[in-house]
Amino acid sequence: MNLRSLLIAAAILPLVGIAYAQTGPATRKAHVIGVVFPNDARPGERASGSVVLYPGAIAGSGVHVEKASVEIDENRPRKAELSGIVIDAGVQKRTADQNFVADVPAGAKSVHLVMSRDDRQIAAVDVPIEASTSGPLLCGSSDWISGTEQDGSQSQYRTPATYCYAGMAVIAGQFNGDAQQTRIEVAGTAARIVAESQRYCYWLLPRAADPGSNRVTLHEGSHTVTFTVNVPRLDLLQLLEDQGASAAEVSPPQANAAASDKPHSSFPLGLGIGVGGFGIGGGDDSSGGDLERSVPMRH
Prior knowledge:
The protein is mainly β. It has two domains: about 5-130 and about 265-295, no CATH class; about 145-240, Immunoglobulin-like (Sandwich). It is built from three helices and 19 strands. It has helices at about 5-25, 80, 235-245, and strands at about 30-40, 45-50, 65-75, 85-90, 95, 100-105, 110-115, 120-130, 145-150, 155-160, 170, 180-185, 190, 190-195, 200-205, 210-220, 225-230, 270-275, 290-295. A six-stranded antiparallel beta sheet has the order 10-9-17-16-12-13, with no helix packed on it. It is globular, with a radius of gyration of 19 Å. The two termini are about 15 Å apart.
């Protein structure tokens, strides 16, 4: 197990013990989850969002995270538990392990989402429509680069040359707003998309990514676009979202890429963990209180 694994284990395992000591083997308890939606979604447009289990770990500009409390079965994989929650954003009902899609009404100030389980409502959230006209901020001095289309031509789709925000990346271009119709791969592994507007797609670096140079492939409509980007450091946010606290016991892949040329970014990459009275994961706490901590992942 390398340094990165030890740091993750050191951060998570004590919290797991605290959570168990406080709650014992209870099967279902309240957890704070996050509903992610793009800041630049505008009235009259279609946009997509997602539900994340660690809302305190989503970092970077361009997205809004609205928190809600739901009951989750501790004895099931957390991703599997989300598949039993249905989200209705007014277009099509989808399970919470998928991207939901919303058509923002003209003049709307928010989008109303209803979560249900077994046809019973368990939570409702109003996600504000910020209609931002500015693009997401880049970390450090990173520049946007254009991708390469399948025929070798320069693409309209662009992405930062360096990914720095805690496991979340962004691609700019023309999207239809339904993230279920977009696919992004890194090292042949599908990435999880957390939000999409008609201008930006936000996604999590999968575990297959390595520090250094990485090949990113975007599939959007008739476009297949490739990018070569630099990843200075990694966290395992997508792995945590998929496996919860068990991620601390999984050794990450060996970093076989070249060392980063920006090892000391002014935006330290961190694994955000919310600690509440009932467990871990973005401020899990039925009473609504949370304390978010950041565990720097440096290489």
